[in-house]
Fold this protein.
Amino acid sequence: MKILLTTDTWTPTVNGVVTSTVALRTELLARGHDVRVLTLAGSGRTFTEDGVTYLGSLDAGLIYPGARLRAPALNGALHALAAWQPDVVHSQCEFSTFAPARQLAKAAGAPLLHTYHTVYEDYTHYFSPSRRMGRCLAELFTRSICASCDAVIAPTRKIKWLLTGYGVHCPVEVIPTGLDLDRFAVQPDPALRRALDLPESEPVLLYLGRLAKEKNIAELIAALPQIARGVLLIVGDGPERATLEQLAEELGVAHRIRFAGMVAPADVPCYYALADAFVSASTSEAQGLTYIEALAAGLPLLCRDDPCVRSLITPGQDGWIYHTAEELAALANALPWGPAAEPLRQKARQAAAPYGRQTFGASVEALYRRTILDKTAAPRAARPKGVLLW
């Protein structure tokens, strides 16, 4: 098949959408498909390189940190992709590259699929003065996007339930993102541990991800005074870093926190290898790819309750779900460390096994084939339309 993947973000950006799209592209190529990517450039220049077409874009950091918007008048690049005649167009983002995805699918007579990666109602603080108003906007926006699609992929049941609640009528299939799990089977690096000033005698609680308000990292820091032992290792960067560093100082726990900053994707497994458990207070995850990475590295999870984690964690076997900062502290204090934790670590690795990249690729490939057959057999049925925003 000729498959076009469209996404607003691509490497070297590090986020869940990029991780998922890169994993999908890698596996589809390994399965013998012709795969191209349409994404945004980091500047106004449009170009194609190694099967990736970069559309010139404009800085939109006022909307969301690091965001970019597609520049106008880019028909040349889109005409070249239309002439290629993709069999499937698979969108990963709802903004700048979605309209071209829809246009290219229509021009080729190909089905348009979309993966819904982001729970926008958890990001209302960026675009709405009211959470209630923000949720209504997210619902209308989502319905308008999905009304154009032949099928939607939800990474978890949480997202499928959300889309059903929004009134999305196109077929929605749950397909978790798969990862290269073997890359997380690495040994701890003593030199890296020394560079981060992590005491050998202290357990390490790891948070890895974007430092943003919706990730609720402040709750992890607030729980630290109640946790008897251990260091909180925070890997990643984002707009909340200065606020979090200030909070650590105010609570008197700065000496027990290491802010490692952004690290190269290739080095990420080395940081998991240093930790004894993975912690997260986020309720904004569509799937939580870092949770799967942590399990693959043999780390038990301590995560705030959310539909996303209920299907991932078996409490007492590969982690625990908490509801308050006090409960998080109590669970952290009860965690086994060192050799006593090995049975827990083994079960964590087993819990990650269903999320391999090969399973992911096979499931998406099968959905592509079914959707192509459905579109060939009959035109897409009329569906209730949301509010078109363009």
